[in-house]
Automatic annotation (TrEMBL):
The keyword Transport applies. One of its GO terms (biological process) is intracellular protein transmembrane transport. Signal peptide: none annotated. InterPro entries: SecE_bac (IPR005807), SecE_sf (IPR038379), Translocase_SecE/Sec61-g (IPR001901). The chain crosses the membrane at residues 93-120. The gene is secE. This is Protein translocase subunit SecE.
């Protein structure tokens, strides 16, 4: 009986070696990242210098200025890749933008009239 008590976890009577909760806790503890110490041992790599810049030669040396003709040609090529809206989509977008702009105009006009009226009451 005393031997069973020594092997038991306590509450549930399961030996400590067979308790799944303890096994999970041990596995979790062993998988946690370990913080490196601040000691300057030989295995740690300390960055004592700035990161080296790209080599001066590289891709920059081979690039040349873009001429106006090549700029227009490349722009036209990019515009061919654009997915243009259909006529129906264009009308819908136009109506949405027009309504939004009219609402903003009405809001700003109302604020202008309100503040103008208020200033005339206070100072006029």
């Amino acid at each position: 009986m005393a031997q069973e008590k020594d092997n038991a976890d306590g509450d549930n009577g399961v030996p400590a070696a067979q308790d799944p909760a303890r096994e999970v806790a041990k596995a979790a503890a062993s998988s946690r990242p370990v913080r490196k110490s601040a000691s300057n041992d030989e295995t740690s790599t300390k960055k004592d210098h700035a990161t080296p810049k790209q080599r001066a030669g590289g891709a920059r040396a081979t690039r040349k200025r873009t001429t106006p003709v090549s700029f227009v040609r490349e722009s036209a090529d990019e515009l061919r890749k654009v997915v243009w809206p259909t006529a129906t989509q264009l009308r819908q977008y136009f109506v949405v933008v027009l309504v939004f702009v009219l609402l903003v105009i009405a809001y700003v006009s109302a604020l202008d009239l309100l503040f103008g009226w208020g200033l005339l009451k206070i100072f006029g």
